[in-house]
Amino acid sequence: MFVFLSKLLDLAFTPLAWALTLGALSLALRVRWPRLSLGLGAVGLLVLYLFSTFPVAGALTRFVERGAHSTQRPGVVYDAVIVLGGMSEPGPSALAGTPQFGEAVERMLAGHAEVASGRATHLIISGGLIETDPAIPREADTVAETLLQLGLTDAQVIREDKSRNTRENALFTAELVRARGFKTLLLVTSAFHMKRSLGCFHAVGLDPDVLPTDWRAPGPGAANRNWTPRAEALDDSTRMFRELAGRLVYRARGWTTDAPAPTD
Prior knowledge:
The protein is an alpha/beta fold. The protein has two domains: about 1-65 and about 230-250, no CATH class; about 80-215, 3-Layer(aba) Sandwich (Rossmann fold), CATH 3.40.50.620. The chain contains ten helices and five strands. The protein has helices at about 1-10, 15-30, 35-50, 55-65, 90-95, 105-115, 140-150, 165-180, 190-205, 230-250, and strands at about 80-85, 120-125, 155-160, 185-190, 210-215. Strands 3-2-1-4-5 form a five-stranded parallel sheet, with helices on both faces. Helix 1 (about 1-10) packs across helix 10 (about 230-250) and helix 9 packs parallel to helix 10. It is elongated and about 70 Å long.
């Protein structure tokens, strides 16, 4: 139920939804309150425009990624590097018959590099499936098979294929970690997602070092000065607002904490 509700919440925290809501209100009020209707319509268009520009989307992305930095310790060989799902495209993978990956594929590549270079002994890929279609592969399986093709072994790759969100990533991974007696851990996920992810692992009693990847904030360049509305910028803004909403909800439910929770 929570997964379904979280998707509704995701929809509520999108600039496009705000603009459409304001537009609908503007239409509904156009006869009785024409001035208010005009104002709401103008605000809706302004919201849609601003969050569809690279300067605004970039500033929002920098804010969300702020504070993400690597705490990987030189010289430490980690028992496991934990790679969170969200990088593969399950539907296209099922249609193509081969793994298809999205923008966050750097998560997998970073995890692979840690194990392949000997900086970690095992790689735990954490990612299940929300859809119930049996033809759609679980993300842990898709990523694991790709890692095997890239040279890792079955003994090195551990699949956590039950989780459907960041909270469950932490819960089910903690079970694997404790069952195998792993002590030193390195958590890999996107920079914008790291704060909430680390908080979830703290809440289940784990204290991994972190390696953020898949940075989204733009560097200096022409894009930062381009005020032409673009769908890519709106997508970036939407992703960051969803992450901020997720942080609030997870904190309110006690699913994230700033320090590792005590365990029995």
